[in-house]
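Hello, quick one for you while I still have it in my head. No rush at all, and the record is pasted right below.
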Amino acid sequence: MNALEVKNLKVIFPTEMGIVRAVEGIDIEIEQGKCAAIVGESGCGKSVTSLAVMKLLSTPPAIVRVDKLELGGTDIKGLTDKQMQKVRGKDVAMIFQDALTALNPVMQVGKQIDEIFLAHNLSDGENGKTGRVNRKKEAKRRTIEALKLVGISDAELRYKAYPHQLSGGMRQRVLIAMAFACNPNLIIADEPTTALDVTIQAQVLDVLKDLQRKRNTSLMLITHDLSIVMNMADEIYVMYCGKIVERGTTREIFKDPLHPYTMGLLGSIARIGDAKSRFVQIPSSLPSPIHKPSGCYFHPRCQYAGERCKTEMPPLEKLEGGRCVRCWNYKEIKNGKNG
């Protein structure tokens, strides 16, 4: 059974300047206990996708359409916001990219984690006021355990700290503790190492990876950095201008990329022992989401683009083993690389 199954997800934002087509009919499947990464440049629709799965987009202004949206085989497509409040945190949780803004600045971090346990795991029982007191004590105990689990030392002391009193890496660990608090089947991590230095990034990713595997939790990792997913993800979705342009296992993507955009992303990664003297630079930048080019959206930046690429959008062609690619010329490009 898949932890997450999304079919034909579309998200648009009507604006005074025109229609922003943020996500254009994407499919995502994540097996239980596996990590799937959605990678691409900033502005390609990754975060909007994650918010749509969590049903956190305000409608309006967003218009969301999806044929199928299931968590662990349970249909959540038609759930109201009130119904989703029982699902978020318990069945699916999210780690946001900016811990300082994701946490309440005027509330102790321990109390913020308490709220998750109080909302989902603990009940008042039949003892009235005594039950509520015991409930809060139990929530605090579990919160301190959760803080220790993500490697926060002096957890009892940090429980009483406010977000501004913690370092960036420690705040991110708090968000991870909050996400894993109720042991959900799926966790969505949206750029979980943004604004952290390289050493702290590695520590945070190690904590996330360790908990994910120990608890057999499924993980959707949103990032623009392919080097982050190298040792984290089982499968990679490459996203460009709201569309999936390539899908494959991590090994397939790194060993044999098929789409020119994927090749460009991989070409910008520094690797130990790499003999190349220059990194690949993808020309120009993402097109406006309001005024996307005709044909393949990547053709203005693609060195392999032909006339057909300029007029016709290629389909997402399914290959053996579940691999997919959206490119008219991928076979010729592959033969050229191997020739």
User: Anything to note?
Assistant: The first strand starts at residue 2 and ends at 15.
